[in-house]
């Protein structure tokens, strides 16, 4: 397997000018039909085990009197809950009838306790996959980070570390107040109800059945946020601070993963599917740690842009099939990278180029 070298000083390619590769798209379409079925016998045990381990370790971190043990438990809790939380990405792509009860179960087990209910990603992430939206100003999940100032990258990570504070404010303060203040409600819906990285993105009010799902999920997260605030009076500061530390670390590692999910080199024009693929990143085996920092299939992010309907457990097989079927000249091989830190370095160097 060929792994693209991110350190190589290639001349920047204007992604929008890249034509679609018919052979790659045809091979991907055939695999999409073959691997499109989500297997509940994989989804449910994975989610339940991740949540159980995560909450047990979180309890251990809160109850431990030994600092070293508390840190170990906190690390385990962060990684397990990060994996459990990553299933929100799957929820946006699986068919409604594919995994009965999974969306409800995920929200009760993970979305509400972490204050990231699925409505914050549903009908948002799919816009990132829209053919004419990807990489444009209308993409909620895209910023041309490689073309921005060097300080933008540490700021990108720093903002993520403050996520639990922002979520407690959003659900424990703003959501209840917005019930009585219509103008605040409009602002909360438009600006504080999406897991997006584009600060210019504004969300439309929900409608129909989705609105009903939104409201009960938001109510659940608000009650949980209020319970967190109230826990200080019942149990002191330690449980809340440990929860926030684990949540913050989880969000930071996800933000680092987001940072290397794309090359972020598009300047706002609509792109071909092949150009979108080449602006995205796979970190396939043998990278030893990618399954930890990019769990639930997220290590195959570029492939996911070719096969958005393929469940996470089939992406490895689809990747191996494409590697074997497509020759070295195929652009598919140029979407594969060796690891996180070379990619961080590549993007950081790009921000330092005078434009």
TrEMBL record:
Residue stretches making up the Fatty acid desaturase domain: 68-332
Key words, A-Z: Membrane, Transmembrane, Transmembrane helix
Keyword Transmembrane among record annotations: yes
Claim: Lipoprotein is one of the keywords in the record: no
Pfam families: FA_desaturase
Name listed for the protein in its UniProt record: Fatty acid desaturase
Upper lineage: Bacteria, Pseudomonadati, Pseudomonadota, Alphaproteobacteria, Sphingomonadales
Parts of the chain that traverse the membrane: 52-81, 102-121, 151-177, 221-246
């Amino acid at each position: 397997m060929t792994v693209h070298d991110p350190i190589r000083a290639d001349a920047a390619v204007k992604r929008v000018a890249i034509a679609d590769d018919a052979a790659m798209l045809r091979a991907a379409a055939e695999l999409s039909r073959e691997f499109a079925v989500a297997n509940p016998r994989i989804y449910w045990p994975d989610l339940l085990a991740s949540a159980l381990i995560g909450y047990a370790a979180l309890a251990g971190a809160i109850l431990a009197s030994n600092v070293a043990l508390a840190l170990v438990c906190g690390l385990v809790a962060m990684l397990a809950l990060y994996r459990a939380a990553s299933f929100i990405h799957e929820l946006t792509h699986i068919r409604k009838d594919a995994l009965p009860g999974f969306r409800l179960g995920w929200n009760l087990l993970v979305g509400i306790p972490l204050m990231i209910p699925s409505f914050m990603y549903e009908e948002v992430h799919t816009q990132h996959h829209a053919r004419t939206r990807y990489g444009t100003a209308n993409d909620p999940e895209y910023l041309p980070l490689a073309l921005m100032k060097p300080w933008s990258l540490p700021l990108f990570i720093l903002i993520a570390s403050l996520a639990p504070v922002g979520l407690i404010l959003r659900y424990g303060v703003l959501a209840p107040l917005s019930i009585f203040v219509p103008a605040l409600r409009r602002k909360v819906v438009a600006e504080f109800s999406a897991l997006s990285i584009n600060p210019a993105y504004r969300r439309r009010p929900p409608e129909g059945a989705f609105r009903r799902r939104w409201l009960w999920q938001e109510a659940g997260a608000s009650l949980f946020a209020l319970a967190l605030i109230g826990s200080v009076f019942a149990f002191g500061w330690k449980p809340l601070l440990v929860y926030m530390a684990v949540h913050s670390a989880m969000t930071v590692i996800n933000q680092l993963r987001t940072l290397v999910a794309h090359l972020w080199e598009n300047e706002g024009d609509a792109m071909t599917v092949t150009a979108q693929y080449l602006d995205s990143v796979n970190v396939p085996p043998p990278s030893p740690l990618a399954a930890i920092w990019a769990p639930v299939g997220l290590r195959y992010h570029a492939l996911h842009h070719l096969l958005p309907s393929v469940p996470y457990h089939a992406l490895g097989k689809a990747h191996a099939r494409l590697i074997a079927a497509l020759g070295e000249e195929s652009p598919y091989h140029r979407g594969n990278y060796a690891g996180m830190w070379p990619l961080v370095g590549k993007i950081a160097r790009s921000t330092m180029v005078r434009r």
